[in-house]
Structures are given as structure tokens and as C-alpha cells.
Design brief:
11% helix, 1 helix, mainly beta
């Protein structure tokens, strides 16, 4: 089942992030356990533009990777798990063929490539105003939220 056009609603509650680290502003498509598409507008006041780079702000590559990882976290969910979340376990190769600046509309498209026990490999792309700015994969590790924090 596909859910489209959802605003910061129930699906985003599956992510363990809060602002300013919650990068997804809108969910465009969600097929639980398979794929997700999300959107964010890169505004001049976003934390990642501070000092990167003065006079010509560019969205840092790691922010693009994080946007893809969060979108992949939505895709990896089966849709009904309330006590389950994911953390980044590994980065696959990434390419950044172009840059994104202030005002760009970032869209992340992530899909589940494979599952290996508690690990999920997610691949995807990020575009800025329709131009590809990131392409790669992340491996997510399932975290059991019902267990106590070991720290």
C-alpha cells in the first residue's frame, strides 16, 4: 500500500530524529518495507549553511547522505513497528555529481536493496531541483527500542 503527500505525520514518528537533525519536511511516497521518497527545501537559515561556504553556501555532502539515510529508514520500516528504529551501520560508495545551494528543493528517493538479519541495505539518489546531487547506499542496523540504553 502506498501513502502519498503525507506531511510530518505518523510516518515521521518512526524516525528517532528531532529538529534540527530531522531533515525530512515532507513524505512524497511511502511503500512500507520497500521504498520512500521525501522532500526538503534548503533554506538560508539551515544549520548546515553556517560556514559552508561563506559567500557561496553549499549543502554539505554529509547532509545529503543523512537525508537519504532518514528516507531509507522510512523505507526499511514495515509500517506497523512502533518499537523499532534504525541507525547507520555503514556507508556504501557515494558520488556527488553536482552541488545544491540555498533555496534548492531536495528530493530523496530510497529503496531497500536487501535485508541481512537486523541489517538493511538501502540505496538511493538525492536531487536538487531535479538535478542529481548524491547517489549511493547506506546500511542500517535495527535497534530494539524496548531494551535499556547500555550507557
Amino acid at each position: 500500500m502506498s501513502s502519498k503527500g503525507s506531511k510530518l505525520g505518523d510516518a515521521l514518528a518512526m524516525l528517532p530524529h528531532e529538529p534540527p537533525m530531522l531533515l525530512i519536511e515532507e513524505i512524497l511516497e511511502l511503500i512500507p518495507g520497500e521504498r520512500a521518497r521525501s522532500r526538503r527545501r534548503a533554506d538560508a537559515g539551515d544549520w548546515y549553511f553556517q560556514g559552508h561556504f561563506p559567500g557561496r553556501p553549499v549543502v554539505p555532502a554529509i547532509a545529503l547522505v543523512e537525508l537519504l539515510a532518514q528516507t531509507g529508514g522510512l523505507a526499511a520500516h514495515g509500517g506497523s513497528e512502533t518499537d523499532r528504529s534504525f541507525r547507520v551501520a555503514a556507508f556504501g560508495p557515494f558520488k556527488f555529481p553536482a552541488a545544491a545551494g540555498v533555496g534548492a528543493v531536495l528530493e530523496a528517493d530510497a529503496w531497500v536493496e536487501r535485508r541481512m538479519g537486523s541489517l538493511v541495505r538501502v540505496a538511493g539518489i538525492v536531487t536538487a531541483d531535479g538535478t542529481k546531487v548524491a547517489d549511493g547506499s547506506v546500511t542500517l542496523a535495527e535497534v530494539d527500542e524496548t531494551k535499556e540504553d547500555p550507557t
